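Second opinion, please. Please look over this fold, written as tokens:

===
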Amino acid sequence: MRIRSLRRILLLSINGVILLFMLITGVSTFYSTHHELDELFDAQLAQYARLVRHLLLEKPSGVTDPNTIIEVPRIMEDDAQTTTAQERTLEGHKYESKIAVQVWRQDGKLLLRSANAGPLPMQPMEAGYHVIKYDDHEWIGFSLFAADLDVWIFTAQREDFRDELSVHVALDHLIPLCIALIPILMLVWFAVYWGTNLIKVLSIKLSQTGPNNLKQLDLKLPRELEPFQHAINSLLAELKEYVIKEKRFIADASHELRTPLSILQLHTDNLSEAKSPADMLNANLAIQKSTKRLSHLVFQLMEIQKLEHLDQLRFLPTVLLNVLSDAMAQIESKYLDNVSWDIQVDSATKLLVEAALFQCVLRNLLDNAAKYAQKGSVVKVNAEEELTFCKITIRNFISTEPTPDLPRLGERFFRHAANQDIEGSGLGLSIVRKIIDLHQIELTYRVSNNEEFIVELKVPNNLS
């Protein structure tokens, strides 16, 4: 089952590590304790054997008594919890039965044994330590040969006794840790809750955002969460810009389409009320003209909308003369024939541009040059290659009365009051401005003293 809560993942992970650490500590403590007790009890077995040898030397007469038995009290063991003082009885201790002693002569005769050791040898007559199976239990034994007495002394201890003590010692270490585990887990829970609470605050802030509420987040977050806030703020900024563009597009479209649609409706009414063929023809021509203007307006609005959401372009080396020819082919013939054209562009001149968009730039600029030029005048187009850019100049003769409002050229829907009779929507230069910004092109407008309107484009040879 996949866990989808970060807080739960952290709690399970941290607590799991703590429990694993305690388990490893417990196992390590048990084996370390067992090893230390083994060394201690092994030393005691050797010490017991030497003590028996010393006693035999002190009382050599005891060696001659055959099969002497050392009584061992039989104290019943139970699982009841008792204190150390309670385990010390008048008869002795219950663990006495887990320690055994035997003394054998070299010829195989048993001289001395504890009551819990049988009449048979517990271990081989070989000096050193032995692991033996005796009386259905595993024992650790030690054999010592006393050459001066010509006897073998065996001491042994049950293995389960050692295991039991190892468990007790290990538990003595682990029980305090287990008791401390509860406050540790509570502290872990508190730390995780406190640490992830800021994520919850962040999610609450995000849930409060919407199309009408795209404010930047400004939370005091840990260093690890700051990149998330930065990324979210970047996304919110892009969304806000997108919403603004959409609202502006809707406002512009509704504003600009209202008048053409009203005019179209008027001509439609005139057509339905026409009483003569001439009136019908005039209304029909007016409808065609209005429809054409409306189509042009919608086309330009869609071009602007497309450019608003265009972030990355594909720049390729493009022959300028080819783009120029394609742009002029899209200009209406009535404007194209209104002026003479003087094109001075080298066929080898290339630009690093997005061909379709740059063609749109030239089409709009050349279309305006033909529309607003004095009838029969010359429109000049030339290109000069410089070290870091290519300068394209478009010149046409216009009437300077009234004076052109150069700073406002490129504003959406801006048209000079004196040019309202010329077809257009005021969007062409707005499209041009957007495209040249994407290309990092420098665009300037100016009017010379001899009524010549000059447009200059400086197209960089490479983009930074």
Summary: The chain has three domains: 1-68+96-207, 226-308, 316-460.
